[in-house]
Amino acid sequence: MPAAHPDHDELAALEADFLTAVGGEQLFQEKLRGFFRSAIDEVIDTARSGRFFFKDLEKTEKTYLGTKFEILLRDWLQVPRGIILDLLIGGREVDVKSTTVGSGWMIPPEAENQFCILLRVNELDAQCAVGLFRARPAYLTTGFNRDAKRSVAAAGRSNIWWMASDFPYTSNFWTFVSEVDRAALMKAGGGTKRVAMLFERYQQVAVSRVQIIALAAQDDPMRRVRRGGGARDILAPKGIAILYSENDRDIMRALGLKFGYREFMSYRPKNGDEAALLRQANHID
């Protein structure tokens, strides 16, 4: 956005407050990779529904995703609800609008002239966008829907401050798995064996915590991963580490891995230095 744009200074300040809340640009990118994945996987709810993909959701569930994104974003940023709009960031009321189809953000009357966070997610390509927007009437369509909402006009999109555009987030793990492998994983004995099989067959593939819960299908599913009776006991002697973003972020960064918030990834060291790093952290034997 040009410095001379009338919204430049306010949106720059909003971005700065957003990044401060999330912990900086690097953490923003890491958490963004897992943000949409976690939200969508929670709504798919494989453990209870037996579904695996976004396309399996009902229309009402896809609509609910907008609310889910808002709830998780508030938790991610650790900011309160606004008095009128969804969030309060740096003293500003901010509305959250999302779309899974093109650029179909719908702006309600109470959000006009206010700040908005615009989220776009394309599950087919696993790409997302995050934009900041001052919803001035001149940027919106002239037509209303039955709820008196207006969409962002095609010409109005040039007034969006993009924090991320066409950003690759973590793909649905099951898109990498053939139907044969999926059936084998779901029938591979107890939860620990299923989790170990997954991480041995699919290394350097990010797997959300929600998907581990679905695969373990038992009480305390995280126990099926950790040392002391979990999948790590099976794979560590084979030289395969199971890493978790919330505990092993520095190691995963040192290995050059791309990961998101609350995501697991298995990794076999490629040289002696990597093996020493993982052995020192008790991830391999």
Instruction: Give the percentage of residues in beta strands.
Output: 15-25%
Examine the coordinates and then state which fold CATH places here, giving the name of the CATH topology of the largest domain: ECO RV Endonuclease, Chain A
Taking the sheet with the most strands, its summary is: 5 strands, mixed
Rounded to an integer in angstroms, the radius of gyration calculated over CA atoms is: 21 Å
Q: What is the number of independent domains?
A: 2
DSSP helix fraction? 25-40%
Please name the fourth-level CATH homologous superfamily of the largest domain. DNA mismatch repair MutH/Restriction endonuclease, type II
Q: What is the typical, i.e. mean, pLDDT?
A: 92
Number of helices: 10
Order of helices and strands: HHHHEEEEEEEHHEHHEHEH
Shape: elongated
Q: CATH first level of the largest domain: which class?
A: Alpha Beta
Counting DSSP E segments of at least 2 residues, the number of strands comes to 10
- The CA-CA distance between the termini, in Å, is 52 Å
What are the low-pLDDT stretches, counting only 5+ consecutive residues below 50? none
Which CATH architecture of the largest domain is right?
Answer: 3-Layer(aba) Sandwich
Which structural category fits the helices and strands? alpha+beta
Strand order of the largest sheet: 1-2-4-5-7
Topology (SSEs and partners):
Layout: H1 8-22, H2 25-44, H3 46-49, H4 59-77, E1 87-89, E2 92-99, E3 106-107, E4 115-122, E5 127-134, E6 150-151, E7 161-168, H5 179-186, H6 191-201, E8 207-208, H7 209-216, H8 231-235, E9 241-244, H9 245-254, E10 263-267, H10 272-280
Parallel strand pairs: 2-4
Antiparallel strand pairs: 1-2, 3-6, 4-5, 5-7, 8-10, 9-10
Helix pairs in contact: 2-4
